[in-house]
Amino acid sequence: MKLVDMHCHLDRMTNGLAIAQAAAGRDMGFFCTTVTPQDAAAAQERFAACSNVRVGVGLHPWWLADGTCGARDVADLERRAATARFIGEVGLDGGKRGGNALELQLAAFRRMVRAAAEHPIPGRVLSIHAIRAVTPVLDTLEQTGLAAEATCILHWFSGSTDELWRAVHLGCRFSVNEHMLATKRGREYVRIVPAEVLLLETDAPPELNAPYELDAIEQSLNIVLDELASIRRCDRTVLARSIASRSAALLDLPCADA
Fold first, then answer.
1. What is the pLDDT of residues 102-137, one digit of tens each?
2. What does DSSP assign to residue 122?
3. Does pLDDT of 41 surpass 60?
4. Would you say residue 227 has pLDDT above 70?
């Protein structure tokens, strides 16, 4: 794979299947993160024939915070997480859109993480949302042992420096998008962390349940690559090959060549 988007909502693009099929011809892969367990089941069926797509079982904290999802969805997530190799988008949001329901989110997240930890699967990968709640996310991953058993990716990281290094020491990875690189803190974080923890993402589409463009995804990933190479003062080609190979290996994509 030449490019791998490690966090996007491909299933929430109305033309997502066409994008996935066209992307295969460009050696592009996707970690399709979902926002409800039901979405995950539908996406797994929708993209079943796409060898360049991996679908995560998810329950977005915003959907819990606003009441869209409830106890039945949490139980469904817990059940599916026990047997899922790919999990995401899951996590906690202590910001404006989730802070009023952080305890509810934390209870759900703990149930999901515990279910996964109690049923280890080789090569398990999680994409995790952690806004103003990185410490409880890391506490849960550490206390259950899941951080040692699975690859935990913090998507669009915006925590503190102490939380950054704690996550690095726990073995977490970081998927980086244009929004993260638009901040001084984000640019500094990608400069100082080890190169092997860096991955690419778009978090596309900007508008759910609408059409999107493969060119926009590819352009965004390449912009992030350009910026990373500039910030880290390294060879862009070497960096791209390393990230693509690492991403393809995590998702068990058919080709890890960049």
1. 999 999 999 999 999 999 999 999 999 999 999 999
2. T
3. yes
4. yes
CA distance 192 to 186: 10
The angle subtended at Cα 79 by Cα 77 and Cα 85, nearest 5°, is 80
The pair of three-digit structure tokens given for residue 113, joined into one six-digit string: 């993480």
Residue 184, both tokens: 């001084």
Least confident of 39-43, 93-97, 190-194: 93-97
Give CA–CA dist 247/108, Å, rounded: 28
* Cα maximum dimension of the chain: 49
Instruction: Report residue 54 as tokens.
Output: 């991996």
Task: Write down the H helix ranges in 47-101.
Answer: 61-65, 71-81
To 10 degrees, the CA torsion angle through 141, 186, 197, 61? Answer: 30
pLDDT in tens, 184-205: 999 999 999 999 999 999 999 9
Q: Give me the amino acid identity at 88.
A: G
Question: Judging by beta carbons within 10 Å of its beta carbon (0-12, 13-18, 19+), is residue 179 exposed, middle or buried?
Answer: middle
The CA-based angle 224-247-210, given to 5 degrees, is 60
HSE on the CB side for 160, CA within 13 Å?
A: 9
pTM of the model: 0.97
Six token digits for residue 39: 């979405």
